[in-house]
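ok so I'm stuck.
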Amino acid sequence: MKEHSSGFTYQEFDSPGSLSNTDRELIETAKRAAESSYAPYSKYHVGAALRLVNGMVITGSNQENASFPVGSCAERVALFAAMASYPDISIESIAITAHAEDFTVDSPVTPCGICRQAILEYELRSGRKIRIIMAGETGPVYIVGSIGDLLPLSFSASELRK
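replied:
not stuck anymore, here's the structure
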């Protein structure tokens, strides 16, 4: 038997006010995007904003459905909109945040497993790492340099060729 360990490095900022103007603006855009979410079941409104390398910003918000698997997360809504409209332009960063109707989101919002896999596919497709900026309504902000940091031992197309 062999035992292995995995870890990653992330940056923690006390609040969005500690970030660069560019990152702070991306979080604010994600907060505005959350206002258009459709979340009658969870009452958890998620917004995502991604910045392409050309400076263009694309947004998404979670869209729930009574048949739960049919809904989409904010990250994938933004990611797929970018891929459909600008397939040859890489993504530089994505900011994710949320607010809830029944409580204050006081910790960074992280992408779910499906969104992590979707972001990873886009990283591999574009050949460029995507910075992930995660914030709540209040509290700290986390930043990782690549979705690979949040998805160790990931599945990729190379697995399909073996």
